[in-house]
Q: What sequence folds into this?
C-alpha cells in the first residue's frame, strides 16, 4: 500500500504545545480487531498510537504515515477489591478523567495522576507519567499490574512484570514504540474524601523554595512548587498536600461536587504571553491571598490547568515549548545554574514548576530519576530559543540528567544516548518486538530512538 491510499482521513496534527505540525492519515479503531487490520496495512512510514494528544511535542504524530487515534479503545471494568487492595481493568484509550469519575464515588483513587486528567491510560504508560507524589509512590508504571500489547507482528500479548519484565519495562516509558496498549489493569488506592489538605508556603528565592520542597517531602504525600522566574530570584509558592480524611472534613461527600466552571481560551491571532504580561501575572499570583491551610478538590490541586480549556492558545499561533528536565540529587549547583540561565533566556519563562523525584524505575526510557525536575514553558518562535535550549541540554546531560521525551519537540538526536544511557538495551527489545519497524513517530525519526529510524 502507498501512503496515498493509507486508511483514515488526512489531518494536520500537533502536540499540546502546537509546534512542529505534520500531516498523517488518522484512523480511529473501535476494537482490537480493527486496530490489527490498520497496523497490518501500515506502509513504510509506519504507524503511531495517539491518545488525547497531551504530549507537548511530536510524540503522537507520524507525518506521512498512519496515526492510530486510540480513544475508542475505551471502557471501564468493575473495581476488583481483593485482600491486597483494589484494581480496575480499563481500555488503553480510556482517559484518567473517566476513571476518576468511576472510582472516586466508590472511595478509590488512581495512585499517580499527572498535571492533567485529560490523558489516556495508553499515553500514561507510554510516557510512564509522574505526579506530585513521585517521591512517595514512583511513576505510573509502578501501579500497573498488567497490560495487553498489540505488537507490530500482529500478536496480542498480556504483559506483567513477572511474565516478561524486559518487555514490561521497555513499554513503560517506551513512547508507544513497542506496540499499542489495548487495555491495562491498574491498582487503586483508598480515599476517605474527594479533598486534599493543602499547605501553601511562600518562598523568597530559589534556595528557600528548594528547602521548602525538601522539607515538605518528609511529611506530605504530594508537593510541588510554582516558581516566578520572570522577575525576582526564583521566589515561589510551595503546595504540600495529603488526601483529606473524614476527620479533616467530616461533612465531605464522596459524591461528585457540582462541575466547576471550565473557562476556554479563544484562538488568538498573536501571543499575549510576553515579559510584561508574565511579570504582571506573576506579581498578582504571588500576592493573591492564599490561606496557609485549605481543603481543595483532588482535581483542582493535582490538575489546576484543567480549569482553563485550550490554554496554549494564549501563546498565539506560534505555540509554546515546554522544557522539562530531571537532575540527580547532589546536582543542586547545576539546577541553580540552569535556573539562573533560564531567568536570562531569550524569551520569557512563562510558567515554571519545580518538583522532587524519588528513585527512578527500571524502565530504560522512563524519565524520573531521584532528584529534581524543573518544567518551564516558553513562547515558541524566538530565533535564539533553539540554540539556548541546546545549551541547557548540554548542561543537563553533563550533570547526569535528562529531558522528558513526552514534553520534547526540539532536542537533537546526538544528546539522547547521553541522557538515556540504556537506549541500546531498549532498542534490543523494541526491534525484537517490531522487526519491520512499523511503529515509529515524528519524535522517533527526529531523535533516532529506534534502529529503524536511524536507517
Ligand atoms: C497540562 C499538562 C500537564 C501535564 N503534566 C504532567 C505531569 O505532571 N507529569 C507527567 O508525567 N506528564 C505530564 N503531562 C504530559 C502527559 O501526561 C503525557 O504526555 C501523556 O503521555 C499524554 O497522554 P495522551 O493520552 O494525551 O497521549 P498522547 O499525547 O496522544 O501520546 C503520548 C505518547 O503515548 C503514546 N501512546 C498514546 N496512546 C497509546 C497507546 N494506547 N498505546 C501505546 N502508546 C500510546 C504515543 O504514541 C506517544 O508516544 C502533562 C501534559 C499537559 C498538557
A:
Amino acid at each position: 500500500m502507498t501512503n496515498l491510499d493509507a486508511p483514515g482521513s488526512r489531518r494536520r496534527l500537533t502536540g499540546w504545545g502546537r509546534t512542529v505540525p505534520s500531516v498523517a492519515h488518522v484512523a480511529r479503531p473501535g476494537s482490537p480487531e480493527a486496530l490489527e487490520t490498520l497496523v497490518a496495512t501500515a506502509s513504510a512510514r509506519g504507524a503511531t498510537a495517539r491518545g488525547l494528544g497531551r504530549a507537548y511535542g511530536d510524540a503522537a504524530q507520524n507525518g506521512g504515515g498512519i496515526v492510530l487515534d486510540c480513544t475508542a479503545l475505551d471502557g471501564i471494568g468493575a473495581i476488583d477489591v481483593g485482600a491486597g487492595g483494589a484494581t480496575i481493568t480499563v481500555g488503553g484509550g480510556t482517559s484518567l478523567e473517566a476513571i476518576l469519575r468511576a472510582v472516586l464515588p466508590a472511595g478509590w483513587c488512581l495512585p499517580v495522576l499527572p498535571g492533567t486528567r485529560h490523558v489516556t491510560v495508553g499515553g500514561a504508560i507510554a510516557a510512564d507519567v509522574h505526579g506530585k507524589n513521585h517521591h512517595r509512590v514512583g511513576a505510573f508504571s509502578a501501579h500497573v499490574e498488567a497490560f495487553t500489547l498489540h505488537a507490530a507482528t500482529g500478536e496480542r500479548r498480556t504483559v506483567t512484570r513477572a511474565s516478561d519484565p524486559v518487555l514490561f519495562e521497555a513499554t513503560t516509558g517506551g513512547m508507544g514504540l513497542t506496540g499499542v496498549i489495548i487495555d491495562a489493569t491498574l491498582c487503586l488506592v483508598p480515599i476517605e474524601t474527594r479533598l486534599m489538605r493543602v499547605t501553601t508556603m511562600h518562598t523568597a528565592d530559589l534556595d528557600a523554595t528548594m528547602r521548602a520542597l525538601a522539607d515538605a517531602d518528609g511529611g506530605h504525600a504530594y508537593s510541588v512548587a510554582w516558581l516566578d522566574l520572570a522577575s525576582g530570584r526564583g521566589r515561589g509558592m510551595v503546595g504540600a498536600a495529603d488526601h483529606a480524611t473524614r476527620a479533616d472534613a467530616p461533612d465531605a461527600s464522596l459524591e461528585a461536587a457540582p462541575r466547576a466552571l471550565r473557562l476556554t481560551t479563544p484562538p488568538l491571532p498573536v501571543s499575549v504571553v510576553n515579559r510584561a504580561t508574565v511579570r504582571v501575572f506573576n506579581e498578582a499570583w504571588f500576592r493573591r491571598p492564599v490561606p496557609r491551610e485549605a481543603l481543595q478538590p483532588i482535581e483542582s490541586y493535582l490538575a489546576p490547568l484543567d480549569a482553563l480549556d485550550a490554554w496554549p492558545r494564549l501563546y498565539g499561533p506560534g505555540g509554546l515549548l515546554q522544557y522539562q528536565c530531571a537532575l540527580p540529587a547532589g546536582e543542586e549547583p547545576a539546577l541553580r545554574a540552569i535556573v539562573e540561565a533560564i531567568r536570562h533566556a531569550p524569551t520569557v519563562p512563562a510558567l515554571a514548576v519545580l518538583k522532587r523525584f524519588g528513585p527512578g524505575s527500571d524502565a530504560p526510557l522512563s524519565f524520573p530519576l531521584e532528584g529534581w525536575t524543573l518544567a518551564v514553558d516558553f513562547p515558541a518562535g524566538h530565533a535564539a530559543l533553539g540554540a539556548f535550549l541546546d545549551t541547557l541540554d548540554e548542561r543537563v546531560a553533563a550533570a547526569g540528567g535528562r529531558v522528558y521525551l513526552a514534553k520534547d519537540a526540539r532536542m537533537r538526536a546526538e544528546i539522547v544516548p547521553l541522557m538515556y544511557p540504556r537506549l541500546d538495551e531498549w532498542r534490543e527489545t523494541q526491534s525484537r518486538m517490531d522487526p519491520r519497524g512499523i511503529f515509529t513517530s515524528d519524535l522517533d525519526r527526529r531523535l533516532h530512538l529506534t534502529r529503524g529510524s536511524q536507517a
